[in-house]
């Protein structure tokens, strides 16, 4: 899962707060090897670690964990202080409620709430105080609260539904990595729904593990994909990284204990296909290796299962809008 890549849409969206503040971030992009051509190409994608470092760089430049999207900045260190405030709570519910009360102390902060709905609990965010045209910070906060909660109890909180109080965006197929559950747009609130049993679970973390967690969080919480239990994620895990020896659809169906017809139907329901899934995995593996420079483009083409480098060039340009050589040059320049 670590080779999952980040769509350039999220990079452009992350930078809009800095643009609003009139910040010159060109030096940061150069330092991270993110070229303007990558940002201008809608199909371009970045490695997760680049995205993590971009968010950390924006926080440092702005001294604002809201990245320029709030009415007032949330000074760097606020999230860490909230972590110290909740780490000794006995249960997840107490920790989440205390964390939400902590942020409630700040004027003009987006409001985060927990509401019980029978056996379910809804974590909702009221972001009406934000300037957030792409809903980037709003969705980031949802992801951060979900993954923080999962980390606190030492297990992934399974989401039943993600709701968004705005229309479905053009890049909604990327949401599978952020919200691996049924998604609903034009809803009454922007929220996550999960089972209330998680709220009574004890915290398994302490100040020592919190210190390690805070070295990279919350930036890496946003960059790290969460494939969850979706069929596409399970198939990616079954396929692995050895493209030359990938099982075919029938073999994958057998490993999942379903018929090939059922597998095709389920993939259709998730808005995908077996071929598209393999293409996306090849694309992400290609970007992963192109950023590391340990393989020549010809060797990489062979490893990805292409019969000749020209076929790899054509496929990569179709996936990202750039040739493999141009992509690698952008990373190195």
UniProtKB/TrEMBL annotation:
Entry GO MF terms: DNA-binding transcription factor activity; transcription cis-regulatory region binding
Highest taxon, organism lineage: Bacteria
Stretches assigned to the HTH araC/xylS-type domain: 233-330
GO cellular component: a single term: cytosol
One family name in Pfam for this protein: HTH_18
InterPro entries named among the record's database cross-references: AraC-type_N (IPR032687), Homeodomain-like_sf (IPR009057), HTH_AraC (IPR018060), Tscrpt_reg_AraC-type_HTH (IPR020449)
DNA-binding recorded as keyword: yes
Keyword Membrane: no
UniProt KW keywords: DNA-binding, Transcription, Transcription regulation
SUPFAM superfamilies with a match to the protein in the record: Homeodomain-like (SSF46689)
PANTHER family, per database record: HTH-TYPE TRANSCRIPTIONAL REGULATOR GADX, HTH-TYPE TRANSCRIPTIONAL REGULATOR VQSM
Protein name (record): AraC family transcriptional regulator
């Amino acid at each position: 899962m670590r080779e999952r890549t980040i769509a350039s849409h999220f990079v452009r969206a992350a930078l809009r707060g800095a643009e609003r503040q009139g910040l010159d971030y060109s030096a940061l992009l150069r330092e991270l090897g993110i070229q303007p051509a990558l940002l201008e190409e809608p199909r371009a994608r970045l490695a997760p670690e680049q995205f993590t470092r971009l968010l950390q760089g924006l926080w440092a430049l702005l001294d604002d964990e809201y990245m320029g999207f709030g009415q007032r900045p949330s000074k760097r260190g606020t999230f860490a202080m909230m972590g110290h405030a909740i780490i000794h709570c006995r249960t997840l519910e107490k920790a989440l409620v205390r964390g939400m009360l902590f942020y409630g102390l700040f004027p003009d902060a987006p409001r985060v709430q927990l509401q019980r709905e029978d056996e379910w609990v809804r974590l909702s965010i009221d972001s009406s105080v934000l300037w957030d045209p792409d809903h980037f910070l709003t969705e980031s906060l949802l992801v951060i609260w979900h993954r923080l909660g999962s980390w606190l109890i030492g297990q992934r909180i399974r989401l039943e539904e993600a709701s968004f109080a705005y229309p479905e965006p053009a890049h909604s197929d990327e949401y599978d990595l952020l919200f691996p559950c049924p998604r609903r747009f034009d809803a009454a609130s922007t929220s996550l729904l999960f089972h209330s049993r998680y709220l009574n679970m004890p915290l398994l973390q302490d100040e020592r593990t919190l210190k390690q967690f805070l070295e990279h969080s919350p930036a890496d919480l946003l960059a790290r994909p969460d494939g969850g239990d979706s069929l596409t994620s399970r198939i990616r895990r079954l396929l692995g990284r050895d493209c030359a020896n990938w099982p075919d659809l029938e073999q994958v169906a057998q490993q999942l204990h379903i018929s090939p017809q059922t597998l095709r139907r389920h993939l259709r329901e998730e808005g995908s296909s077996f071929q598209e899934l393999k293409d996306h995995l090849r694309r992400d593996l290609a970007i992963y290796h192109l950023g590391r420079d340990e393989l020549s483009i010809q060797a990489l083409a062979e490893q990805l299962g292409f019969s000749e480098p020209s076929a790899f060039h054509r496929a990569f340009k179709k996936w990202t809008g750039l040739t493999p050589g141009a992509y690698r040059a952008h990373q190195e320049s």
